Amino acid sequence: MLDTMTFTKTLGAFCGALLIFLLAKWGAEELYHVGGGHGETQQAYVIDTGAEEVAEVAEEVNFDELLAQADLGRGARQFNKCAACHKLEAGANGTGPYLYGVVGRAKGAAEGFGYSGAIATDDVWSPENLSAFLENPRGYAPGTSMAFAGLKDAQDRADLIAYLDSIDN
């Protein structure tokens, strides 16, 4: 039977258990934060990592120079990363649009491919635009469905663009 005394005992037991858990939490926090908290104490020994030194600024290399020095063989090897989704034959779309004649082609103009809408169609794929896109596809065209992380090395991008430009003469 459920009477007033049983209800009072149950509620008292629940409140007592809650109080014990709260006190245990408070005690654990006090043990963990011995010394008054984070950031108020000094380290006994600091290792010099040279972080205060000014980092050398990487020289910006002209992309046209990189494109002129591009190695088509390395570009073909770089294309292997693209080959899973893109094809080099005109009109043969894969998961991504075909890349035959992509250098100089209008953006979003691959016939028969449904673009995600992130690529602006009022410009052409110049080597500079391709380089910016290949460096960070999601940063260049937010909302693109291209899952590729990008090529960080400028020479790798130049090699790939030169290779793509060479296949359509």
UniProtKB/TrEMBL annotation:
The keyword DNA-binding does not apply. Keywords: Electron transport, Heme, Iron, Metal-binding, Transport. It comes from Seohaeicola saemankumensis. This is C-type cytochrome. Residues 70-168 form the Cytochrome c domain.
